[in-house]
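tool_log.txt
---
The assistant was asked to compare two proteins side by side. It first ran the structure predictor on the initial sequence, then on the second. Raw inputs and outputs are pasted verbatim so the downstream comparison step can read them without reformatting.
(1)
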Amino acid sequence: MLKQLTTTLNYNTGAKPAPPNEDIEHLQHHVLLSKIIIAPIVSCINICTIMPDSYEKEFIQITKARETKVNNTNEQQLLRDPEVRPTSEIIAKGLGTAGKAYAEFTKDLERYDIGLMDWRFYNDGKAWLSKGEYKWTTPRGANKAKTIFWLSIWSGFFRVSFFFGFDNREELLQLSISQDAKDLIENAKPMGKTMRFLPIVFDVSNEAQLSDLYVLAEFRKTIVK
């Protein structure tokens, strides 16, 4: 292939006679294959590498939308320095009295087969975030994972954000949850380009709120999307 290409280039500069027609056709054939096969593969790799999952993008949108409200309240999101990785000590100090609820929440997740992922800094939201994932193995041996909620740390509370389909609202309202949680669901506004996501966001500061989180987490595990 390289020899043929060199021959063609030499011909274009007048160094050697033109290659036979069959060699030119062979070279054109390889060029055509590279456009048809290689280029789409490279394009796919680039797209798959840079595109975050849908729920991640929606969570970042919520974070940005709430930033304008935060400026007019006492709410303050923590873990904003990309150079300082979150530790249990830093989180406990920021949560204050809500630290007890946070400790109980993270401990209880194991009972629901939900793992808390390592903290990651997101440039879009300018903060360290974590998420709860449910992992399982199919009967055929394939490993699967599903994001159950997103987690962020604020001054005096921690925020747990669930994402459901807009068409799940009525099912959510039928769950055994508190009236406060039902009001939250009832008043939630759809998001996304097609308005198909329903974000349910809890600001948690005490243990009494945890039971609602567990019920929604269990329901989220049953949803295919």
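(2)
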Amino acid sequence: MADNKNAGNTGNTGAGNTGGANRPNIGTTGGMGHTAGGAGGQSGQGGQGGGFVDTAKDTVRSVVDRVSDVAGQARDKAGDWAGDAYDTARQAGERVQRWAGDAYDTVGDRVGDFGQEVTSLIRRHPIPAILVGFGVGLLLGRAARMV
């Protein structure tokens, strides 16, 4: 493009294009200047447009980075909450297991004590124990026949 700057007329008032309406504006300094100015104007707008596009890209990247950070934080927070929920559920399960074990031991001890008391009562009074057993058997038999 630098070679074409000096081509054509350089402003001679004689032959050459003077910018008339019927003749194309090719090969004159005025024409080249106009064309160069037009191209420069377009590249200037393109430069401004490019700056706008770059700014938009930077803004979008910034927003994407922020969204990514927020999503990462949300994921971490959800993981923390899930871990806390797991720990709480595990601790509650351990407490229920301990309570159930203690209840089982207590009931087992009391049933064992009750069994020992019944056994000692039967040994102390064998005939009344046999008669009570016979009466309970009759009552259960009649109840089973009615149902």
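---
observation on (2): Helices lie at 29-124, 126-146. The chain has a mean pLDDT of 76.
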